[in-house]
Amino acid sequence: MLLEEGAARSGRSLAGFDIAPSINVFVNDDLVLARNVMRPGLALYIGGMGSREQNFYNQLAQRYGFEAAAREVQDLYLDGKKAAACAAIPDGLIDLVSLCGPRELVHERIAVFRDAGVGSLLITPMAITVEDRVAQVRVAAELAAA
Q1: What SS3 state is found at 140?
Q2: Strand ordering across the sheet containing 98-101
Q3: 19 within 8 A of 119, measured Cβ to Cβ
Q4: Tens digit of each residue's pLDDT (9 = 90 or more) over 70-81
Q5: Theoretical Cys-Cys bridge with 67: which of 8, 20, 54, 62, CB 3.0 to 4.6 Å?
Q6: Which fold has domain 17-145?
């Protein structure tokens, strides 16, 4: 594990270390809709957060195995074709980096994070109104506790 290697090189231990990724969440029975909610933010980060030569998020998507898609999203986004950049994001990448879709699927994905050693999952509800954001947080908390 990379964290263990880094800790060992610095002479430190991972005892008490909490893995706490931040992830967007949108629980909805319509998986296509839920994925589409995630697309604009992902397109911005993968495509527009930096130059063609230096974009951490694009490089991360490439390391996740989405090299061609990450380059395509970036090219489209930087060329001003934001809708096309959104459409170019593979469903598999969305599923990997977000919690979206029906309750059962989100529950399974939370379990994957837990099994990978995540201690605290920081979520950002992808909703417009305060009421909808609160509802998304409640559902995610229920699924995490189940």
Answers
A1: helix
A2: 98-101, 22-27, 122-125
A3: yes
A4: 999 999 999 999
A5: 62
A6: TIM Barrel (3.20.20)
